[in-house]
Design goal:
By secondary structure, this protein is an alpha+beta fold. The protein has 2 domains: 178 residues, no CATH class; 128 residues, no CATH class. The protein is built from 12 helices and 12 strands. A 6-stranded antiparallel sheet has the order 3-4-5-2-6-8.
C-alpha cells in the first residue's frame, strides 16, 4: 500500500526507508507493536518526545508526536465527540506479536490490549491516586515498531479506535476543534517526584494481580457509572486485596479492611472524623449487606438506601466503600505483604501481645 500527504516530497531516500520497513512487515514472523493510550487533561512537562519515562519493562509515559495527533483526528472517530479530547502525553505499552499473514499483527495487538485492559485501567487509577486530576482515555492507537504495513509518506502508520466508557463525565464536552489544540491540557503534572512515585507504584502493581484488579475497579467513579455498579466494583476491589476465596467473606474482609485502616494510621473516613477501626468494621458489614443484595438481583428498599451510621454521624455507603478502598489500596502499595494470607491477622495478634 502507498499513501502520501499532499505536501510530502518524494525522494529516493524516502523509498529506501519505506522499502526496508515494508520488507520487515512482510517477512518478519514476529514484529513489535506499541499500544499508545493518550491521557486526557494531564501533561508531563519533563517528558519530551525523545525522552520517554519508563514505568515498567514494557510500559512508558511518552509525549505524543504530531504524527500521533494526526492519527487521532481520523474522520470516523470524530463522529462521536467522546472519542477525542485534549492530550499531550500517553501511556505506551510495548509488545511483540505474531505476523505470519497479512493483517495479523494489528489483530494480535488488539487481542493483547484486551488482555492488558485491566492493567491500563489500573495505571490511570494510579495516576488519579497520586496526582488528583480528572483524567481517563478516549482513544487507543496501535503503532508499528520498526516495520510498516504499507508506505505512508508523511501520514500516520497507525490503527486507531475510540473508547467511550473511560472518559470522565466532566470532560466529555471538552473537544478540541483543530490539530493545534489537540495537545493542550489545562492540568499539568507537578515535579518529577510524581513520576518517580508512579514508577515505584507501578512496579508493585504489575506483580500483584489483586492491586491491579482493585485499581481497575475504581474506574466507575470517574465515568459516573450507576451507584449500584460502583458499589459492586468497590467491594469486589476490596475482595481482590483482602479476600482469600474461602467462606465467611463478609466478616473476614470487614475485619481485615478495618485492621488495615488502623494500620495505615487513619482516623477519618468519607468525611467523618474520629472514626475507629471498630466503627469501620461495623459500617463495612452494612455495605456488604447491600452489595450482596445487588449481586443477587434484589431491588434495594428505601431502608437499604439510607445513609450508614458512622461514629454518631451518617455516611453515604458508596462514599464509604470507595474511600475505604482507596485507603486500603494505598496501604497495600506501600506494604504488599498485607495482601498475603494471614498477614493482617498476624499483625492484629502481634498488636495484642505488644
Amino acid at each position: 500500500m502507498y499513501q502520501h500527504a499532499g505536501s510530502a516530497d518524494f525522494s529516493g531516500d524516502d523509498f529506501d526507508e519505506a522499502y526496508v520497513l515494508m520488507e520487515r512487515g512482510l517477512l518478519s514472523r514476529t514484529v513489535g507493536v506499541h499500544v499508545i493510550v493518550p491521557m486526557l487533561n494531564v501533561q508531563f512537562p519533563s517528558v519530551a518526545e525523545d525522552t520517554p519515562f519508563r514505568l515498567t519493562d514494557d510500559v512508558s509515559i511518552v509525549k505524543l508526536t504530531r504524527t500521533m495527533q494526526i492519527a487521532r483526528m481520523t474522520p470516523a472517530l470524530l463522529l462521536d465527540p467522546t472519542t477525542i479530547g485534549h492530550a499531550s502525553h500517553a501511556f505506551r505499552l510495548a509488545t511483540d506479536v505474531a505476523n505470519t499473514h497479512r493483517g495479523e499483527a494489528y489483530s494480535r495487538a488488539w487481542e493483547y490490549l484486551h488482555e492488558r485492559q485491566r492493567l491500563l485501567d489500573a495505571l490511570f487509577a494510579l495516576l488519579r491516586l497520586r496526582f488528583p486530576v480528572d483524567t481517563g482515555y478516549a482513544q487507543i492507537l496501535l503503532a508499528a515498531d520498526g516495520w510498516a504495513p504499507g508506505w505512508f509518506l508523511g501520514l500516520p502508520q497507525m490503527d486507531v479506535d475510540g473508547v467511550a466508557d473511560r472518559v470522565p463525565a466532566q470532560l466529555r464536552l471538552d473537544v478540541p476543534h483543530d490539530l493545534d489544540n489537540l495537545h493542550s491540557a489545562r492540568t499539568k503534572a507537578p515535579r518529577m517526584e510524581i513520576l518517580e512515585r508512579m514508577r515505584q507504584d507501578a512496579g508493585v502493581v504489575v506483580t500483584a494481580s489483586g492491586l491491579e484488579m482493585a485499581l481497575s475497579r475504581t474506574a466507575g467513579s470517574i465515568v459516573q457509572s450507576p451507584v449500584e455498579d460502583r458499589l459492586l466494583d468497590a467491594v469486589v476491589g476490596m475482595e481482590a486485596l483482602l479476600g482469600d476465596g474461602s467462606g465467611e467473606i463478609t466478616y473476614k474482609v470487614s475485619v481485615r479492611a478495618a485492621a488495615v485502616y488502623a494500620y495505615a494510621g487513619r482516623n477519618s473516613l468519607a468525611g467523618v472524623e474520629n472514626v475507629t477501626a471498630y466503627d469501620v468494621f461495623g459500617a463495612y458489614r452494612k455495605v456488604y449487606d447491600r452489595r450482596s443484595k445487588i449481586a443477587h438481583g434484589v431491588t434495594l428498599s428505601k431502608r437499604d438506601k439510607r445513609p450508614i451510621a458512622l461514629n454518631g454521624e451518617t455516611c453515604d455507603p458508596l462514599a464509604l466503600a470507595e474511600d475505604l478502598l482507596r485507603i486500603v489500596i494505598e496501604a497495600c502499595i506501600a506494604n504488599p505483604e498485607l495482601m498475603e494470607s494471614g498477614t493482617v491477622e498476624r499483625k492484629l495478634l502481634d498488636g495484642l501481645e505488644s
